[in-house]
Each structure stands twice: as C-alpha cells, then as structure tokens.
Give the backbone structure.
Amino acid sequence: MHITKMMDYQVGRVKLSAGPLAARFELNKKYVISLTNENLLRNFYLEAGLWSYSGNGGTTSATTTSMDGPEHWHWGWESPTCELRGHMMGHWLSAAARIYAQTEDLLVRAKADHIVQELARCQEANGGEWLAAFPESYMNRIAKGKYVWAPHYTIHKLLMGLYDMYAIVQNKQALDLMRGLASWFYRWTGLFSREQMDDLLDLETGGMLEVWADLYGITQDETHLALIHRYDRRRFFDALLSGQEVLTNKHANTQIPEILGAARAWEVTGEERFREVVEAFWACAVTNRGYYCTGAGDDGELWVPPGQMAERMGVGQEHCVNYNMMRLAHVLLRWTGEPQYADYWERRFYNGVLAHQHGETGMISYFLGVGAGSHKKWGTPTQHFWCCHGTLVQANASYVQQIFMEDKDGVAVCQWLPAEVNLSLNDSPITIHLKQDGQYGVYPLNNWNVTGMTAITKIDMPPIPVHRPDRFTYSLTITCDKDVEFTLKLRVPRWVSNEPIIYVNGVQLTNPVRPQSFIGIRKTWSNGDTIQIEFPKSLTTEPLPGAENMVAFMDGPIVLAGLIEREHRLYGNPALPETMLVADRERNHSWWNVGYYRTKGQDVGIRFIPLYEIKDETYSVYFPVDQVPK
C-alpha cells in the first residue's frame, strides 16, 4: 500500500447514530434481508445443474401457486432469459458484508455465509473454477466478436461481493471462490494476443481490473498481477494520458469502474502510470467538464459535452454513475487530503444517494432528472433489478465509511453525518461522537424525535428560535480512559456562507477559517472534551453550464426542486435568490423543515422542497431568470 494522506478506518469502527439517516439505512437493510436465498441463487443453481423447475412434477396437474412459483421469482434483469443475470448477487454480498459490520446482525451474517457456501457448491459442480449465473459460452462468444450483454461486468460484481465478504467479514471460503475464478480467467485470457485482449476490453468489463488488484493485494500471486496487466485498458488509459477528450457521448458507467481499477492497481503495484490515469480522468470528467447542481456530468448514461449541460436535461443522472463517482472522489480524498473531493462527495450524497432512494419504500430511481417536468420512476422489489438496483443496496450500506478518516496526526471529520468512531491512539481507546443539533440548527431528513418533542413541551427549557435557523450545528464529544494528544481535523464545507463558529470546551477559536478547507485542532484531549461547530448557510443559486440565465436553487449543500410540471420563468436577481424565494412551512411539529421555500413576487406561486424528498411529485430543478429592471 502506498503512502496516502488519509486512511479508511476498518469497516465497522464507524457507526451511524440513531436518526433519519439510520432510518434510511434500516430501510435498505430490510430490503437486503427480504431477498430470499433461493431467488438470489436460482440462476447459479440453474447454470451448475443443481436446480430445475417443473411445477409440482406432474404434466397435467402442474401448478405455480406455491411460494416457489415463478410469480415469486426475481425478474427484470435477473430473469433466466436476461444475459446480465447474476449481477445482483455481487452487490447483495457487498451490502450484506457492510450491513453486518455496521449492525453485527447475526441473521445477516448467517444468510451471507450460507449464500457463499452455496456458491461454492455451484463452483464445484461447474468443475472447480467457473462460477457465474450464465454459461462459459458467453465468454467464448464475445471472444469471437459476437455481442453478449456485459458478461465481464456481471462477473466483476460477483468477484467484488466475494472480496468484500473476505475483506470485511473474514469469510475465507469467499477468497477460495475468487482464486478459482482467477484461475479460469488467467487461462482464458492467455489465449489472446494483446490486440485481441484490447478488443475484448472495449466491451463493458466493469471493474475487473479493480477486483484483480484487490485479489493481488491479498495474495501477491504473480498470476493475479498478470491479470492486472492483461485488464489494463490501454486504448482508453493512453488516450486520457495524452490529454484527449474521450468521454463525451460515451457510456459513463463503462469508464468509471475501469478508473477505480486503475486507482487500486496503483495502490497495490506502485506503477505511477495508473495514478496518472486516475488524475487525468478526474480532470476530463469533472474539472474540465463541469457538472449539474447535483454533481452529475452525465445524462441518460452518457457523458455530456464539457460546459454544455443545457441541451442534455433529459432523463437525468444515473445512480450507478453517481455511486461510482463518489467512490472515486473518496479515493482521491485518501490520496491527497484535499477537501474539494469531500465536498464533491457530499454534493452527490445529498442530491444523489438520498435523492435516488424512495424515503418510504427504500426503492431506487434509475435516473434522476433536473429538467422541467421531471418525474422519478421507481423500481420494484423483485420485478426490475436494474444495475442501479445493485448500487442502491451498496451505496446505502457504505456511506458511513466516509464520515471519519485516519489522518497521520490524528482523526479527520470529513462528512458531517451523525455517527461515532471507535479507535485507539497511543494505545488508548477513544470514542468520538458526532451529533447534530436539530433545534438550534437545521437537520436534513429530520423527523419526529424525542429531543424535538421535549423542546416543544417543557416550559422550563430555553425557547427554540422563532424562525428556522440559518446554520447547521454540530457537536463532537471525546470519550477516553486517559488523556491523549492528537489533531482533530474538521472539514469546513464549500457551502459555508460566513465565518464558522467553533468552540472547544466553551472557548471560541479566533483564527479565521475559510470554506473548503480543513481546520486542525491539536491538543491533549481528555474524557468529556466537547467541540461545538456552527456552519452558517444561505440560499444560493447555481447557473447551468452552457445556459447562464438558467439557475438551480440550493440551501447549503441541498438542491431544491420546484413543484411545477413545466418550465417557468422567474423574475429577480440571480445573485440574490431571496428576491425570488421566501421560507415556507419552516416548522413541522418538533422539527425544522430544511429546504422548504416558496416564490414571492412572481406571477405563479411555486413551492420548493429538497430534491431528496421528492417521491411521486412532478418537479423542475432549473429555472430561467430575468433580471428585474432597475
């Protein structure tokens, strides 16, 4: 592993605190558990010759009314007739591993271990190496130039899930399954010349490069290193290194997993070219391209032309792209320690992960539009299984890892999401609790809670503010057995609108702090030490790249959606959004409604709510604005 500025804590050390985010996490967990072992494994059994179906066994009295009938199976992209079948298994295993690490739920652990055991039975039945929900002939067909829907992509998902089961849950059988598949691919790829291999890599290979790098990082096996080099997509990577703009109108989620593979390859091999590829990609995909207010640079699965988003406001960003770009931003944060990557991650978390997930059912919206008259189309538990279905369960099981990170001098708070981290510094066990105040600040995704109920019922408590606060308010509390010296680094987000207010044990820090930076507080910390942070926020507008008269409204990091079915022109000063919007429905029972506004002084009244709260409403994010004559 090469030296980086920050490191991830072991999965499971950081845990979400009770609250709305934990409720979203629980929605995802319930869905993951609800998918039956039989349905997840059915296509693997079918390929291995371990399952067949003929009703109740009689040709004249066959019935499908039992619980095992086809009406209860997985369909959509997991149906036995879909070439992409089996992709959900890998996502499921990754999600289950992370859910277990977060909750220590033995039911999740037992279910995941059983499924790995059954996959081992399938691999044995296949001859000891091949393991997939489709036949080896798919690979031979693509080798002959015949189209098959992304078999590499599907195998990558399986390998990814097996890797997480080994790395997070220490399931050694999962590593054995990876080794078997690696042997098959080492022998198969050995049949091709470099040019033939490059042709194969021009098909969607997903993150095959990443899983081979993951495997090599564990085994240091030279055959696994050879697979890294065989899956090095040189045509794409070399074009990036030469400065070419090779992304526009290309399938966005084809390239991002390949870049994540290059990132992991640099970490396990030290070959500098891989890191340069990653940095060149970020410049091409983000820095030079620009993005919508949600952080997306794609629409309808394709990269949009740099700085020309106005013509591409169609179905919207894809969830898979959103999730994988967040993963890439996190990698670059680890490598560089630069807060710009954490800001990008935060933008895509609020306006991507949360906005793509139905807040009541937990289901996924494949696309997320920002144009006039957008509408979220929700998937169902067993009838769709889009690729985004898979990244849904992963994304909503994984984001806790980005909250706290290990810094060379101590601990960095990278995301302001309520959680706690348990760690050891200088042989001293320490817990850091991150809380958010929902009464004297605002709390995204807030709902009924005991603290809020107490605040509105106890007369002897100080009154809550008269109006919705204009800040997010947090506290960090240290719990430790003995005093320990370290640096606590706090990320000051880009959206902070005024000087942050920070108290350490009640004493205010006086050093100036700029947005999009880390502030380090080094001291000898004692049990019970507390840091209080106030981040002022404001209503802002962001112009649409390529159409500067079109703007989106943001409340701090949160994109707002106007509840209107068509494009509508507003009048006011785009630099002063308060000339167009005023607070609306700011209080609901015992909590504040962050992001609730309505128009003022306009010919039509429009309500605005956070994009992540949209369920079945039709909405618009970007609005043309005309300046009010002076």
About this structure: The first strand starts at residue 6 and ends at 7. The radius of gyration is 25 Å. The chain has a mean pLDDT of 95. Residues 308 and 546 are 5 Å apart (CA to CA).
